[in-house]
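Field log, afternoon session.

UNIT: design team B
ACTIVITY: writing a sequence onto a fixed backbone
BACKBONE:
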């Protein structure tokens, strides 16, 4: 345990603290009673429980059994055991352990245990606690003194307690702790004051340790003693405080009061603050010819004590002058302290200027400043003990003005805000720069550089060594202003290159990198205060931003105005961003244009000076055209709106003087700019206005869906807009198109036209389609069918057209053809419609026959006018219903229908048959046939149905057809003549009729009802079914059997009429016949109403 100093004799704490040689920590514990172990638990004298084997003793003699006590426990069996296996009856240490003896020993052990516990609690534990306090070591790692007054100051400290015994404990200090200045050399301890200690807890491993966190008010009990102590603290390397008082410990759940605290704490003193350096010395003209000075010092406080001083006032000697200085609001911290002292010195014989004052003081480059503490004023006013210490402070400060000048140069930071490089040559260039030197110390001075400065490239990649680039003269710097001083930099110099290879490497890094550093090394001379400080050194690093490969270049415009055998002329304007502050005059720049690593042309930009920020480069050149495949790729990308990603690679730099400095070219040739050449800004699409003036649409009879038709067109046209002025010719065209519905934007059909010969006339491309499939897009068949409905029924059918066009072209700059792929097409296209085939003329007709199953078979010649430019090849029969009076009376078949634009003469087959159960159909058919045979015209409607064609895509279109037509009647009369005769004597009148057949099928007359009139006078009626139906062959005649007449006139009236008209009863009478004839046309049963006038009837009324 370290020795503790004694308090002063007769002091208040003398009785409480014992000298180390009189303090003894009792580690005495009564030894435990030695008891042999047994199988039963026994409490030993030291309070422990032993559960080992039972004690064994050897008996002196067998025990005597008392009357009435001959129990099993007391009855011996043999020499050592009893009936029960217990301690009773055992012999140990020559003693036979009977039950009585065991009870007595147990009672004694309990008493001893109680005595031991009482000793432990009231004697040994307090001794252990006091011993832990005595052995503990207290260390303060940081101490702060603030708000000093004559009677108090605030004390804050952090520290540790170590070697604090083996018990976890918390110490509190119920009364103030008295602080003594102890360990004084050959002097007694001095009481300084009192303070309050905060509780201290120790724990952890043995020996225990803890922390100190002190924040208290130090009450000064003796100002004189505190003054003596403060002087010693300022000058001594260390000092010791003795802390005495009363402590209370809490450990093991117990509280131990009235423990003694007597601890020595040793701290580092200020050591006289001998380590003082001058950071700056700034003289200036003061009042009354005095010299004002500002001295910037660095004072190292070796102590870990910080003390709040306040405003410190000094006196000093400077050369032959005497002055005073002040440092305001100072807290002297542990470690380094910046101290700025402002003062004034009286200069004998001075004229008022700084230079004369320096001269009058006899100052040279080395100045000694003797500084003494005069007084200090804290924020609480005058503090005696603090002033007593401060007045004892003497500082001997030596200032080497040369060192200060050198430090000003060394500490200065150089920055260049703008730099211009021009007049580049092989071994030199002109450099002009402006910037600022900052943090340039405290001296107003002019710094000159008598010799050119060496310029090194420093901070090179991968830690490479500095390399000398060249030399350049530097203009003088005028340092002034408030401290820290600054100076403007204005550089205008010729940079002489020492190593062009190294300069080439540096220039490459400058162009590629984000920043670079120059190290400037040379000699300097400073002039200040009338003094000259030669042989100073300059070693400064200047960092400038690099060009960073001219990031994010862009091309504002790109044009190809013409072409010739040398290539396509390129004119472009590019924007390059220079992130650097450097302006560099380049001259004429040469570039290669590369696409995917292949050179595709050259560019040249004249008169380029790269300035900070955005730069516009106007360039022109040629695009090579010898590689047709590559040129095809380029134009395909370029003209389809995707732009063209190329690399523009530097090739050469030629200055305005015509020089090509190798170092500048080396750097420039590493420049590789990735740019996107913009696609031309189009006022109109390159391909537009697609039109098919005429085409053939052919259906395939093997595909009843009709969802794929064959299209052929001898001429297809489109507008071709060349966005550039150089000439091209179009040789071939390939197209992939989709038709889309313009209202919904839904694509519903597609057609691919392979590479086909094409030509360009003016701005129109001509090509053709040969048998290509126009197919419905799966799922859009309804829109495909709607297109054909528009074409079939409408005047104009319009669809949207989207797709891409591939053109094979040739320019006057290329020997081969260039394929431009993927030209976008987004347009509309119109087709002229069939207008419902509304113009149909029936030019001829003939009845060819008939039967009961198919009806009357007519062959009709017709002319169908196709108003469209579309030729429609259905390659199948078209069936239309024939309607008269709104009723279907049959069908018309247009065999293998094909319609070309204009009039189409066709022959159709009509089959007329009444619809079963449709009385209107039968009636209208009779009317139609009556009109036809009777020579009258009949208005027909030819109407389509969904069954008119087999093609699904056309069925809705043809179902909308409703074509008006006129069927002309045949003009030949049926009745050639008749013979009217009388059967005598019955006087029955009858007539045979000779019938002519103008039709193409035989007619069989089955019955007839008729009225026979002369002019308007009815003569007779017929209502007769032939016994032998009369059949008249096609084109032939036949006479019926005699048909009875039922006279309307009386016989006498008839004879009178005949004689009047015919002149005799055997003459000829022309009559009118209105009849209804039941016949068969072929085998088809038919009824017609037939009227014929002026039928010659030969009379034979005489029998």
């Amino acid at each position: 345990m370290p020795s503790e100093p004694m308090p002063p004799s007769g002091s208040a704490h003398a009785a409480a603290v014992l000298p180390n040689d009189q303090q003894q920590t009792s580690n005495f514990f009564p030894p435990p009673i030695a008891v042999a172990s047994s199988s039963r638990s026994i409490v030993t004298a030291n309070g422990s429980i032993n559960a080992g084997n039972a004690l064994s003793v050897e008996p002196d003699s067998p025990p005597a059994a008392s009357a009435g006590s001959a129990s099993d426990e007391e009855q011996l069996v043999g020499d050592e055991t009893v009936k029960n296996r217990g301690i009773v009856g055992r012999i140990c240490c020559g003693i036979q352990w009977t039950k009585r003896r065991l009870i007595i020993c147990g009672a004694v052990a309990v008493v001893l245990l109680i005595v031991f516990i009482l000793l432990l609690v009231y004697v040994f534990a307090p001794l252990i606690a006091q011993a832990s306090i005595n052995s503990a070591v207290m260390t303060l790692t940081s101490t702060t003194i603030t708000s000093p007054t004559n009677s108090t100051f605030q004390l804050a400290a952090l520290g540790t307690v170590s070697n604090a015994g083996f018990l976890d404990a918390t110490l509190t200090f119920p009364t103030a702790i008295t602080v003594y200045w102890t360990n004084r050399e050959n002097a007694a301890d001095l009481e300084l004051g009192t303070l309050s200690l905060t509780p201290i807890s120790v724990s952890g491993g043995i020996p225990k340790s803890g922390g100190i966190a002190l924040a208290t008010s130090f009450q000064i009990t003796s100002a004189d003693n505190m003054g003596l102590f403060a002087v010693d603290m300022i000058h001594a390397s260390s000092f010791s405080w003795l802390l005495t008082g009363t402590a209370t410990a809490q450990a093991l759940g117990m509280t131990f009061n009235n423990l003694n605290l007597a601890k020595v704490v040793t701290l580092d003193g200020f050591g006289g603050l001998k380590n003082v350096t001058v950071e700056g010395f700034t003289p200036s003209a003061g009042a009354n010819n005095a010299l004002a000075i500002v001295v910037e010092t660095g004072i190292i406080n070796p102590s870990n004590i910080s003390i709040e001083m306040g405003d410190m006032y000094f006196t000093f000697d400077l050369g032959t002058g005497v002055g005073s200085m002040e440092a305001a609001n100072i807290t002297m911290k542990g470690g380094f302290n910046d101290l700025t002292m402002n003062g004034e010195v009286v200069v004998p014989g001075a004229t008022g200027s700084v230079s004369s004052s320096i001269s009058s003081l006899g100052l040279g480059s080395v100045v000694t400043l003797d500084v003494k503490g005069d007084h200090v004023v804290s924020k609480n006013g005058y503090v005696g003990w603090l002033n007593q210490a401060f007045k004892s402070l003497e500082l001997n400060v030596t200032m080497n003005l040369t060192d200060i000048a050198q430090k000003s140069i060394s500490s200065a930071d150089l920055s260049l805000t703008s730099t211009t490089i021009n007049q580049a040559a092989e071994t030199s260039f002109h450099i002009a720069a402006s910037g600022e030197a900052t943090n340039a110390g405290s001296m107003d001075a002019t710094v000159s550089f008598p010799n050119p400065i060496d310029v090194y490239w420093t901070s090179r990649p991968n830690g490479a060594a500095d390399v000398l680039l060249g030399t350049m003269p530097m203009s003088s710097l005028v340092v002034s202003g408030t401290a820290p001083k600054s100076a403007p930099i204005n550089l205008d110099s010729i940079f002489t290159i020492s190593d062009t290879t190294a300069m080439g490497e540096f220039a490459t890094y400058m162009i590629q990198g984000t920043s670079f550093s120059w190290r400037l090394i040379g000699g300097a001379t400073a002039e200040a205060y009338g003094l000259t400080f030669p042989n100073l050194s300059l070693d400064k690093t200047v960092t400038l931003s690099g060009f960073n490969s001219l990031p994010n270049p862009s091309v504002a415009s790109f044009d190809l105005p013409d072409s010739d055998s040398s290539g396509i002329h390129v004119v472009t304007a590019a924007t390059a961003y220079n992130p650097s502050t450097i302006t560099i005059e380049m001259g004429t720049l040469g570039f290669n244009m590369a696409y995917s690593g292949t050179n595709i042309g050259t560019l040249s930009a004249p008169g380029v000076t790269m300035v900070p920020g955005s730069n516009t480069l106007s360039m022109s050149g040629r695009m090579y055209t010898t590689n047709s495949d590559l040129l095809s790729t380029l134009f395909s990308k370029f003209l389809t709106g995707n732009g063209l990603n190329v690399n523009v690679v530097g090739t050469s730099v030629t200055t305005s003087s015509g020089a090509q400095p190798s170092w500048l070219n080396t750097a420039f040739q590493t420049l590789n700019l990735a740019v996107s050449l913009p696609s031309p800004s189009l006022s109109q699409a390159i391909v537009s206005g697609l039109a098919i003036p005429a085409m053939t649409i052919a259906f395939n009879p093997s595909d009843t869906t009709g969802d794929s038709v064959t299209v052929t067109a001898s001429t297809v046209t489109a507008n071709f807009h060349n966005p550039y002025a150089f000439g091209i010719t179009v040789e071939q065209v390939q197209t992939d198109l989709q038709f889309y519905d313009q209202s919904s934007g839904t694509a519903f059909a597609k057609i691919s036209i392979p590479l086909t010969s094409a030509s360009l006339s003016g701005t129109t491309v001509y090509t053709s389609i040969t048998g290509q499939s126009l197919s419905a897009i799966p799922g859009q068949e309804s829109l495909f069918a709607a297109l054909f409905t528009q074409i079939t029924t409408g005047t104009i059918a319009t669809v949207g057209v989207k797709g891409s066009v591939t053109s094979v072209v040739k320019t006057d700059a290329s020997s081969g053809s260039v394929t431009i792929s993927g030209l976008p097409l987004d347009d509309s296209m119109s087709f002229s419609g069939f207008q419902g085939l509304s113009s149909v003329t029936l030019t001829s007709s003939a009845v060819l026959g008939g039967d009961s199953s198919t009806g009357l078979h007519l062959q009709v010649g017709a002319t169908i006018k196709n108003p469209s430019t579309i030729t429609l090849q259905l390659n199948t029969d078209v069936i239309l219903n024939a309607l008269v009076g709104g009723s279907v009376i049959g069908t018309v078949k247009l065999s293998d229908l094909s319609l070309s634009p204009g009039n189409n003469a066709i022959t159709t087959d009509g089959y007329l048959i009444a619809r079963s159960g449709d009385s209107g159909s039968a009636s209208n058919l009779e009317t139609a046939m009556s009109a036809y045979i009777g020579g009258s015209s009949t208005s027909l409607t030819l109407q389509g149905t969904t069954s008119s064609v087999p093609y699904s895509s056309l069925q809705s279109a043809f179902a909308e057809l409703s074509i008006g037509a006129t069927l002309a009647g045949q003009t030949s009369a049926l009745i050639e003549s008749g013979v009217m005769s009388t059967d005598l004597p019955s006087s029955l009148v009858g007539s045979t009729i000779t019938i002519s057949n103008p039709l193409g099928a035989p007619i069989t007359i089955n019955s007839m009802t008729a009225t026979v009139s002369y002019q308007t006078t009815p003569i007779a009626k017929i209502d007769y079914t032939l016994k032998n139906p009369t059949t008249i062959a096609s084109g032939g005649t036949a006479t019926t059997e005699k048909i009875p007449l039922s006279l309307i006139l009386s016989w006498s009236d008839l004879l009178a009429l005949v004689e009047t008209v015919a002149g005799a009863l055997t003459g000829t009478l022309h009559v009118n016949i209105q009849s209804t004839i039941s016949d068969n046309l072929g085998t088809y049963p038919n009824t017609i109403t037939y009227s014929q006038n002026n039928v010659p009837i030969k009379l034979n009324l005489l029998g």
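LOG NOTE: The chain has twelve helices and 66 strands.
NEXT ACTIVITY: expression trials, pending approval
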